[in-house]
Design brief:
Helices cover about 45% and strands about 15% of the residues. Helix 9 (about 195-200) links the parallel strand 7 and strand 8 (about 205). Helix 1 (about 15-25) packs across helix 10 and helix 8 packs across helix 9. The chain has helices at about 15-25, 50-65, 75-90, 100-105, 120, 125-135, 145-155, 165-175, 195-200, 210-220, 240-255, and strands spanning about 5-10, 30-35, 70-75, 95, 110-115, 140-145, 180-185, 205, 235, 260. It has eleven helices and ten strands. By secondary structure, the protein is α/β, with parallel strands linked by helices. It folds into two domains: about 5-95 and about 210-260, 3-Layer(aba) Sandwich (Rossmann fold); about 100-210, Rossmann fold. Bound molecules: D-glutamic acid (DGL). D-glutamic acid binds next to helix 3.
Length: about 260
Amino acid sequence: MTDPRPILFFDSGVGGLSIVAPARVAVPHARFVYAADSAGFPYGTKSEEEIAARVPALLGRLAERYRPRLIVIACNTASTIALPAVRAALDLPIVGTVPAIKPASAASRTRVIGVLGTDATVRQGYVDDLAARFAGDCRVVRHGSAALVELAEAKLRGESLADGAVAAAVAPLVDVPDLDTVVLACTHFPLLADELRAAFGAGVSFTDGGPGIARRIAYLTEGQAWAAERAPDVAVFTRVDDSVAALTPALAARGFAAIEAL
Ligand code: DGL
């Protein structure tokens, strides 16, 4: 028995590639489809209503076209707002990406944690709940940045980033006294790991959702059959334009040689 159904990853842009990387290691035989809502990018500056209306409908169309065995919403903004609606609409397992506050709380010595996400994510009640459940004895400082999302996209297009741009985007969090752990609560941000390490300095460490999602995917697909000869992985965009063309080398380097339009 072979089963050609892929795993579908979904984000507004290229951020979900930070989730794809650990997932490749966890399920090496899996075929991946990477879907980016380039026509709706960015999500972080949108309202809850816009995201809740957009994401389930798009995932429905993607599920119909690619028939995945599992969908990973590789986007904190979409997950913290639309996860219940997506689960209600689709009859297949859905894995969401939510801020990795639990591992951050386990790692923090000073009990001062930063949550660095999009503006939409950091204002969600979902983040209040995670902070109360897993970091009740910590000071949890939130910071939203749209600039950082744009910088991650630019980096993957091969553009060089202006000196100090990443540092300026995170300056309010860098200035927080005793901060020792930062949750990268937007999947775009691990793509800027080197720049963020430089901006925060050696005393601060980072957590993100990637490792936990990879473990969850491995668990949910354990014992499943895969195709003996895997079809090529594809990246699909809701709008294919010059920005997408500029991403071609970064996508190919991560195994997505073919690009399609939804
Ligand atoms: N990568 C997304 C996240 O994890 C959102 C980026 C955006 O479109 O603003 O939140």
